[in-house]
Each structure stands twice: as structure tokens, then as C-alpha cells.
Amino acid sequence: MRLVKFTHACVRLEDAERRLLIDPGVWTEPEAFDGVTDILVTHEHDDHFDLERIVEVSVSRPVRLFAPEPVRELAEKGGLAETVTVIAAGDEFRAGGFRVAAVGGEHAEIYDGLPGCVNLGFVIEGVYHPGDSYFVPHQRVTTLLVPAAGPWGRHREAIDMTRAIAPERAFPIHDRALSADVGYENFDGWMEYKGATEYRRIPVGESVTL
Asked: Which of 23, 82, 124, 155 could hold 9 in an S-S bridge, CB 3.0 to 4.6 Å?
């Protein structure tokens, strides 16, 4: 399996003819959609779900979205409601040829219970994308995509989640808010020091083989 990193929280999984895109948001590069029909969306925030871009893609080929109910409601505004399979925590399904389990259910708190919206994490054949949460799933995780920054983010919770999950390896996502010269180095340094797993950053547009 090949994992390709795009800006912020977006990644693409590839394995022979199988392709699956996760959380293409407003900062996602157009090439992330190459060869993709099936898309997982953790929640409705625009850094994870760019409706306008997906509408554009749907003109040239069919797309299928797997997402919580609020995403379907937004997709309806773009005429794409029928493309959305509504998913809830605990569901298991196939997307892009991959086996997927939906976990978690709540967005990490920023302040005073906000944003208070649904957030699903996805475990895809051992690869875990938590969206905007630090939820620890019961499924075996070999590759963790660990959130690096956000208004709800803390190094401590990222490290705690990583150690609790104990994956074979971890790579950072959700890092658009960090400066490349200082923020990346700071977060990466702490993850390497205390994450208790193999950790490294995937440059945007590059990939790793799992």
C-alpha cells in the first residue's frame, strides 16, 4: 500500500487498482483527485471538505462520498446528496476497494464545548486517520496519521494518543497552521522524543510505502 501526503489533512491510499482519498479540503492540491472516485470525509469543516472542488470533479466522473450526516446536508446544496453514503461510528464498509471502520464520533473541543460537531475517524486496513480528534480506537493500528496543529490541538494529547495506540509508525497531518521553519521542527522534535514509535514527516506530494 502507498500513502501519498497532500497539504494539511488530506492523504490518498493506493494499492494496485485501489484508490481512496481522505479529507480533501480547501488547501488540497488538484492532483490529489487523480484516478479517485471514492472519498472519505471525517467532518464538514472546509479544511477537510471542499464541496466546490468535489462538484467540479463530479462533472467529469462519478464520485462517492462516505461521511457523517452534516456532510450530506452540505453536499445537497451542491447537488451531490445522492453521492453521499452516510456513515456513523461503529460502521464497517468498503470504499475504493479498501476495508474501512468508522470510529470516534466527536470533534475535539476548542472551548466551551465548541465546535460540538460530529467527527469520524477512519481505520483503513491498519491506517488510522482521526480527523479532528485524539480518539483511540480499539482496532489494531499500524500506521497513525497524527494531528499536528489546530485551535483544538496540543502536543501533549498528540503524544498521549500516539503512545496509547502504539502504532508501528506515525506521520503528521493537520499541519497547515504550522510554520515550516519553526512549527514543523517543534512538533516533530517532540514526537520523535516522546512518541515511542517510528516517526517522520512526509513532504507534501511525496509518498511512503507501508
From this structure: 23
